[in-house]
Every structure is written in structure tokens, then in C-alpha cells.
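Worked example

This section walks through a single chain of length 453. The input is the sequence exactly as stored; nothing has been trimmed or padded.
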Amino acid sequence: MDIVKARTMPGVMELLPGDQIAYNRVRDTIRATFERFGFLPIETPVMELVSVLLTKSGGETEKQVYFTQSTGARAQGKDPDLALRFDLTVPLARYVAEHEPDLAFPFRRYQMQRVYRGERAQKGRYREFEQCDIDVIGRNDLDLRFDAEIPAVIDQLFTQLDFGPFTIHMNHRKILRGLFAALGIEAGERQTTVLREVDKLDKRGRDAVLATLSEDEYGLGGPLADKLLTILNTRGPGAEVLATLRGLDVSHALLDEGIAEMAVVVEALKALGVPADHWCLNLSIARGLDYYTGTVYETLLDDHPELGSICSGGRYENLAGHYTKSKLPGVGISIGLTRLFSKMQELEIVSSSDSTVQCLVARMDPELDHETIALGAELRAAGINTQVVFDGGKLGKQMKAADKAGIPFVAILGPDELTRGSVQVKNLRSGEQQDIPRAEVGARLLAQLGETS
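Given that input, the structure is written out below as C-alpha cells.
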């Protein structure tokens, strides 16, 4: 029989156990933070109907969609009617529209699932990756203070993850659109084109964007483009940036509306206790997606700006307009966990974690196998992740194996311990060994694990 080379397809992340433990801990921290703020979990199928999934896509997005089809349907020449989801936003829109009568609004949902895109396989680009999203969806309207709660979630989350100093950069699409209109850049495709170019400021730099906007096809001219980018270069504490905007020599009703809405968000951020040095107003943040209509967010690690935004999102006026006549405004963010974790590994901000096993029950005497198995069951009942050795060699060899695997404690139950009604417990980190009454070993181990966690 020919041996097929075992290899993982390009564009996916597959981890060894130690790295998977570290990944799971990051994921668990994200989930726990979402739940702490009252977000409810949902999951949607990995496949959606093509007619549903592609209502809001087209162009390059559609080229990256993985269509699915049974062998029988393909043999009959039928077009695929199912495709793998490429994000979690479109499935959320379908979900809310379909279940609207059964949901309580504002609907607060979190979703942590894998999505699929036909990316060209390269470093940092994944075909399968996990997204972690939260959204608050309103019916007809949605209070602006939810726009402040989103960065409060981001702040708590990245403080706990402890990846280093970070800044949540915020802006408002009405401020941008109002500025454009005040400078004579009319609404419609022209504003959208300029907005997309402005969104490249951090990647391309001011001079490159200025040169592009000064080209004839943009219709701005050098002085106007320069004035626009000078204004958009403003960033800093919320109150200061808002004061700068109010003092500009340009005015427009939409600009005033954006400033007023952003002022509400800034005040709510103070009430939520988000530290002033963890966020700023940055007028260059645009978020290229057309459906954002209000507050927008991009989160950057201060020491690693090359990573780009590690958590982004914003407010949109009508999430599910393709699927229902109801107006469902919302605000939310998304974290690309797979890409984030990969980059964190590269920068050695996260490292492989120890085993999830907290205690190894060693095998001292084959005649006591029944007792060691029972001891393992007792430790698990006490809440300790326990592995029992069934075929170990010498005790020293078992100790070395446990230490190599990152297991912190070894429980030893031999004939002498059985007679005394005790268990020897060795802490492999400190080297300390204790003789503990068997009835107390679970509680004592739990206490020591709590001290070392």
C-alpha cells in the first residue's frame, strides 16, 4: 500500500497541544468577558443558502466564497445552492431577521465560530479562521450609549489578555461625511471613493494618500486634499478633538450631528470607567466597509503597530435590510482570533502553555491499581484534572514524564501510604513533598493549585 504524505492544507492553523491550550485560554478569556457584559451566545450553521449569503457581497468577496455541493448534484450539472460563510455578519443578519419575533431587543449576541475565505495561502492569510464577534441590535433605534459600551468591552478584554499597552482609536462616519460635504466633496460615490482612500492613511502614509487624492480622477486638487488630510490628522483625547472640530472654519449639519453624537459617547465612556489613556479620537479612522454609519473602532497594540487593527467594528443603521422590512440598527466589533494568536506567537507575546492535567497519580504497585484508579476518581470529584498511570515504569521515570508534560503535581499511593491512609503529593515546581491524609488530599491540592495559578 502506498503511503500518502501526511500534511495540512495551506491556509489553516493546526496547533500542538501546548499551543492549543494557550489558544483556548485566550478564547476563554474573550468568551468570559463577552458574557460579563451580558452578551448571549449564538451559533449559526457553517453553510448558508447562496441566495441568503451573497445578497450583500459581490466583486472580490464573491470570488473568495467556497461553494459546497454534493457529488450527486454536481454530476447532474446543478449549480451549488450552499456556500461556507465568509464572515459572521451576514449570518447574524439572517438570524435576527428569521428569529425577530422570538428575540428580546436590544438583542445582545456574541458568536465565536470559524469562517472560510478562498484567500491565496500566505503568511498571516487564512482560508479557515475563527472570528469572535459581539453586536447589540436594536429595533427601530439604538441608544448611543451602546457605542460607548463596546470600547468598554474591548478595554476589559485586552487588559486581561495583557498583550501590552493598547489604544482604541475611535471616529464617527457622520463627522467624516460632514467634513467631506463641508469641503465640497459631494455625497455618493465620490465620498465613498475618498473615504476608502483615507482609510489607507496608516498603511500608505500621508504623502502617498495626498498624491492619490490630488489626482484628477478624485477632483479634489492639491490644496483641498492637503486641507482635508490636515484635519484628518487630528487625534487625541475626546474632549480636545471635539473642541478642535467645533473650532474649524468649515460647517455642515451632518458634521454638527456627528460631533453631538460623539460627545454622548465620550461622556458615557467616562461613566463606564474606560481609562483615558486606553482610547482616543482619531479622525483618520474610516473603516472601509460601506455599511458603517456612525461610531467606528480600531484597536492597536501600541508597541506593535505593524499588526494593524486587532479588533475593529462600528455602528450600522440597518443590519438586515435585505431580509426584513424591520429597521434593525446595531453596533459591534469583531476579533480575528486565529490571525491575532498567530501574530502573538510570532512576537512571543504568548507562548506554549503547560498541560491541562493538574495532577498525575503514579503507579507504584500493580497490585494497588484498583486503589490508584479510585484515587484518581476522588481527585476528579474534588475538581482536579487528573491523569492516572496504568503502565508506568520506575517512579523516577514517571516523575520526569510528568515534569516534561508540565503537570505540576504527582500523587503517590504505595503500600505504606495505603496502610497509613495517606497520599504522598510532590510539587514538581518547588520540589516539596507532603504526606497528606487521603480524605484531605483533594481539598489541599485545590488550595495549592489556587496559590500557584
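What to look for: The first strand starts at residue 40 and ends at 41.
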